[in-house]
Design goal:
4 helices; about 40% strand; elongated; alpha+beta; 5-stranded antiparallel sheet
């Protein structure tokens, strides 16, 4: 009996913690049923003319047991109904609700995936052609000369200032009976760069797009006010521009586009470097 009472009290405590209002109404309803059954059974039973104390206690216990049995049956019925309702809701969510992975994948394919925006990556370097001499173990054979390119990167930070403006607009997408958190974006990125070396260099400007499979409208890229989008190459969802740099040359790069996605939009500077004069406006 004790384990049953402990289990019932535990279930009641869990319900009170999760749904206190429902627990209050349910407790009041069970109490009302108990009192109604107990008092009604007493009023319909006519006591004998001369009833002993033992008989009176027996009758009171019988009425109490009958009322408790009715409350227990009602509570068991509610518990079974609750389990059935939870299974029905779970089955509906699995076949129609937002937790359906198939529906979510379909929305990502049609509308667009989650977007994780990375920062512009700038690689400044010079390539030097060197001749490598490989001696043979056999002294009678001549040495082999081989040319190769050695890259000397510039490790100084070329970023002078950054101004980014992002506008996110909610646009929920419906699949089945569920709505998924979709959004539309208007992104404008701007960087001011300087060649930190006092000599001419080569540079690669690599801008990662926020999603490999997404639609991009009104995509534009300008460098010092000149359209450079036709000169950029798309490699692994990254726009890459290769050009020569003059000594201490300043660059003003701007990239803008419209896109869309689901669930979240994320921005991160992945490369370890000093961040200065940085402003990101997210509306």
């Amino acid at each position: 009996m004790k384990p049953i009472l402990l289990k019932v009290s535990g279930r009641a405590g869990d319900l009170a913690n999760v749904e206190p209002l429902i627990a209050l109404f349910l407790g009041a309803a069970l109490l009302a049923v108990f009192l109604s059954a107990f008092l009604q059974s007493r009023s319909t039973t006519e006591p004998p003319a001369k009833s002993s104390l033992l008989w009176t206690l027996y009758e009171q216990f019988r009425h109490l047991a009958r009322a408790l049995m009715l409350v227990a049956l009602l509570a068991a019925t509610i518990s079974v109904l609750r389990i059935y309702l939870r299974q029905t809701v779970s089955n509906f969510q699995r076949t129609h609700g937002r937790v359906t992975q198939a529906n979510y994948d379909a929305v990502r394919t049609i509308w667009g995936a989650e977007q994780e925006q990375g920062e512009l990556k700038v690689e400044i370097y010079t390539d030097q052609e060197v001749t490598e001499r490989i001696e043979s173990e056999d002294l009678t054979k001549p040495a082999v000369l081989r040319k190769k390119i050695v890259r000397h990167p510039v490790t100084a930070n070329p970023f002078a200032a950054e101004r980014h403006d992002i506008v996110l607009k909610q646009n929920a997408r419906k699949k089945g009976s569920a709505y998924y958190g979709g959004y539309e974006t208007v992104c404008r990125f701007s960087w001011k760069l300087n060649n930190p070396a006092g000599t001419p260099q080569k540079c690669n400007l690599a801008f990662p797009l926020p999603a490999a499979r997404a639609m991009y409208d009104d995509l534009s890229a300008t460098l010092n006010g000149i359209d450079v989008l036709p000169q950029m190459q798309l490699k692994d969802a990254t726009l890459v521009l290769a050009r020569d740099l003059q000594a201490n040359e300043a660059l003003d790069l701007k990239i803008s586009f419209k896109s869309r996605g689901v669930s979240f939009w994320y921005f991160q500077v992945r490369e370890p470097r000093e961040i200065r004069d940085f402003l990101l406006t997210l509306t």
